[in-house]
Design brief:
Blueprint: E1 3-6, E2 9-12, H1 13-25, H2 65-82, H3 96-106, H4 108-111, H5 119-126, H6 139-147, H7 161-178, H8 180-187, H9 199-210
Pfam family, one: DUF6308
Organism: Cellulomonas alba
Protein name: DUF6308 family protein
Length: 223
């Protein structure tokens, strides 16, 4: 029986298939596909003002004008780092240079003060511009990779966002490489005419469901 791994959690491939089909075909159940994945945003490979509202479609929206203006002020710095992240490289195929560039982008959170914007919102903004390589993040994915008792990237006091991102990226890469055909098969389950998703987005969908198993007591971390 084929098992897929998402951090500290696992799931049978057939069960994963059923979950992804449900997610991709049931917008009336308030799933974010196709809303988030098909949101037009700004044209081109870099983040514009329109893209700042995409996290709303994953229930992590910008909540205040101060947060919005904070992100606007940071766009040049964010896009400067985004130029280092290649558009055509999937996480499973990324080399150390690619991982370092992606981690450096998330490291923007170490050097800039973005009001009411942490890793969750930030990841949901940048993912759409590099969906092959940049993962999504939320409390459920955090359970799989950081907060589970056997998580591969447990909390470390004082660790930078850049270092944390690099460690998570490496473990997500391992998970995708362990069953590459299964993840690509899941990514091909989009309905006719629907926006495409990547293997990394499929991993997020499965991780979101698996993260629902998290206990009531998790490490709060910084997300």
């Amino acid at each position: 029986m084929t098992k897929l791994r998402v951090g500290a959690e696992t799931i049978d491939a057939d069960a994963a298939n059923r979950l992804v089909v449900t997610y991709l075909n049931s917008p009336s159940d308030h799933y974010a596909y196709p809303a988030y994945d098909g949101y037009p945003g700004s044209a081109g490979p870099f983040i514009g003002p329109q893209d700042l509202f995409a996290p709303t479609l994953l229930n992590a929206g910008v909540r205040t004008l101060r947060a919005y203006y904070s992100l606007l002020d940071g766009l040049d710095g964010i896009n400067e780092r985004l130029t280092e992240v290649r558009e055509d490289v999937a996480l499973a195929d990324a080399d150390e240079r690619d991982l370092a560039a992606a981690a450096h982008l998330f490291g923007y959170l170490d050097e800039a003060t973005l009001f009411q914007v942490g890793l969750t919102k930030f990841a949901k903004i940048v993912h759409r511009k590099r969906p092959l390589l940049l993962p999504l993040w939320d409390v459920r994915i955090a359970w799989c990779y950081r907060d589970h008792p056997h998580a591969p990237v447990p909390p470390v006091k004082g660790r930078s966002w850049e270092r944390f991102a690099l460690e998570v990226l490496r473990h997500m890469q391992d998970d995708l490489r362990e069953r590459p055909e299964s993840w690509h098969r899941l990514a091909r389950l989009t309905p006719p005419g629907g926006p495409a998703i990547t293997a990394l987005r499929a991993l997020d969908i499965i991780g979101w469901h698996l993260g629902g198993r998290r206990s009531a007591r998790t490490s709060p971390g910084r997300d």
